[in-house]
Amino acid sequence: MLRIGLLTSGGDCQALNATMRGIVKTLMTNSEEPIEIYGFEDGYQGLIYSRFRVMSPADFSGILTRGGTILGTSRTPFKRLDVPEADGVEKVPAMVHTYHKLQLDCLFMLGGNGSTKTANRLREEGLNVIALPKTIDNDTWGTELTFGFTSAIDVATKCIDDIHTTASSHGRVFVIEIMGHKVGWIPLYAGVAGGADVILIPEIPYDMDNVIKTIEHRMETGSRFTIVAVAEGAISKEDAALSKKEYKKKLAERTSPSIVYDIAKEIEAKTGRETRVAIPGHTQRGGQPDAQDRIFATQCGVEAALGCLRGEFGYMIARCATYRSRRSPASSSMSTPRATWCARPRRWASASATNSLGWNPPHRALRPRPTYFDLAPPLTPSKVANRNRRAGPEGPAFTYSPRLFVFLLRVPGLKFSCGEIVPA
After folding, report:
1. Nearest of 232, 40, 37 to residue 152 by alpha carbon
2. What confidence score (pLDDT) does residue 397 get?
3. How far apart are CA 333 and CA 316, in angstroms?
4. Which of 112, 212, 233, 412 sits a CA distance of 20 to 30 A from 419?
5. How far is the C-alpha of 96 from the C-alpha of 80, rounded, in Å?
6. Which residue in 132, 156, 128 sits closest to 146, CA to CA?
7. In angstroms, how far is the first alpha carbon of the chain from the final one?
8. Dihedral pair phi/psi, residue 178, rounded to 5°
9. Could you read off the pLDDT of 75-129 as tens digits, one per residue?
10. Is the pTM of this model over 0.85?
């Protein structure tokens, strides 16, 4: 019997269900043992208080296109992990106790940076944990892409598209607040895709004079409207020069709901143009996942499940290089913006080995590894050696990367593996 736990932690997004579906379907297809699935309700709170439901494969049927999470989610801040709950329960010991009480073989955690830090803490406690990168902000260390990101871009882009018509009809300036408290991936991508005239993101402090000049230039050249896409965490050059303490004090004294209202007010005062604010808000987290999110979430689920069957734990599933997927060690993705690749998978411990908590993990009999489909012309030994030499300390440049689908299509100079294009 293979017993697994699933939990979704932190803010929700559109592709959580698609990811869990990928995990379960892959385990059911590839495991030679029966699967027992425990779904923890409301994130780490379910693991702390042992709130779970025993699930069947049927529970994961028909949820590929469903947004949100069928398990529910909540926030358990990592910085307060060692602070007892209101009722006095110690979080980490309670989670470890639940894990061992259910005799879990692996815990799959779908979450962002903070949730993955907590997963790493559980790894340090001796639990078998695999993390999967969930966040609409696309800011998780160690991966180039997170599921939920592209769907959020679609929602924000549609908002900008829809604002265009009313802005041009009335000749107004619209300031649109896009989610992105610490990073500006969504407003940047949505702004470019939606044709925003000004994009303000947290990474680049803005100069209000330049914003005004842009709007006035558009007015002089005959444009009836201007679209300004603003990340919720955008910051001016003046505020960026303040100390952290001074900036927090200024935010506490702010009377407007958010920065976009201050920007809109200043634009209207300096240009004389009628200015409006639009906030798509939490619609950016809701709705169905788009096609790219469904594919990437499924790929993440497949990678995580196969890693579990091979006995590879303590990892976060990541896309670490363009057109390739790798796993980054959880500890690396927590502490530094650098992911590394383990070329030699770690197997399950033998029956005689024990972890730090004295629990004996069972040995898993794995099916033979699937064949890597190479549809490109064969490489000579010298070319293979040159490629592996260029890869550096991360290991071979072209290693096996399991995928759910294989496209039987021949294109000169390319390899295809489960929807992944690898330059030959």
Report:
1. 232
2. 39
3. 7
4. 112
5. 17
6. 132
7. 41
8. -110, 145
9. 999 999 999 999 999 999 999 999 999 999 999 999 999 999 999 999 999 999 9
10. no
